[in-house]
């Protein structure tokens, strides 16, 4: 697929790396942990896109991060967060949690419910520089806020208003599509990543099902339609640091 000088390629759900650890079922869109493919390290500044289901009461114990923008979008269930900056919260379906690891933090992520699994996508973006100040944010969004529109949940891009500010010229959007076409323009020199979290969508002639993703290079005019929950990233090239 091509629009002007841009293009798009499709990654089907079953083309992702999959690991079943019992307490965690995880799909990796890019190289991560035990999955390494030198041809699939990132998409522009988007470095990680993991689609996770965590069993009741289970989770990731305290572990360190640095020099990375980490955004978690909860699709179903409840995620409990604790970190070395003193933050402690529970993110519920439709909510977003943000950690800018900067000079270094430790945190833990657990399924808050002892009965139901939690389904989330965790996404990492390379910041514009190393050694930045660590930050934390948590925002709850309503379904109405994203119904048939691109809701910017986090951004460091000029002119894009979002409750969470990123240390990068990048924007993350979510949408609940209900038979209402949505368009987004990816500028020249930038990269888009469209992910179907649930439902079915069509983007520029391609039928997309849960777990499918469209990788876009700009300039590109994206149009999506159907009945689906969508996540969209608009990012610059990966920093050289």
Structure description:
With 241 residues, this protein is mostly beta strands. The protein contains 1 helix and 21 strands.
Main sheet: strands, sense, barrel = 10 strands, mixed
Count up the helices.
1
Provide the β-strand percentage band.
over 45%
Following the backbone from N to C, one meets helices and strands in this order, namely EEEEEEEEEEEEEHEEEEEEEE
Uncertain stretches: none
End-to-end distance, in Å?
Answer: 32 Å
Give the overall pLDDT as a whole number: 94
Q: Which percent bin holds the helix content? A: under 10%
Question: Any idea what the radius of gyration is?
Answer: 17 Å
Global structural class: mainly beta
Number of strands: 21
Oligomer: single chain
Q: What would you call the shape?
A: globular
Short structural summary:
The protein has 241 residues and is mainly β. The chain has one helix at residues 143-146; strands at 2-3, 6-11, 17-20, 24-28, 46-54, 59-65, 69-76, 78-83, 88-92, 95-100, 105-111, 118-125, 135-140, 151-155, 164-165, 171-178, 182-186, 191-203, 206-208, 213-217, 220-235. 2% of the residues lie in helices and 56% in strands.
Show the helix and strand layout:
Blueprint (H helix, E strand, L loop, with lengths): L1 E2 L2 E6 L5 E4 L3 E5 L17 E9 L4 E7 L3 E8 L1 E6 L4 E5 L2 E6 L4 E7 L6 E8 L9 E6 L2 H4 L4 E5 L8 E2 L5 E8 L3 E5 L4 E13 L2 E3 L4 E5 L2 E16 L6
Parallel strand pairs: 14-15
Antiparallel strand pairs: 1-2, 2-20, 3-4, 4-5, 5-12, 6-11, 7-10, 7-12, 8-9, 8-11, 10-13, 14-16, 16-21, 17-21, 18-19, 18-20, 18-21
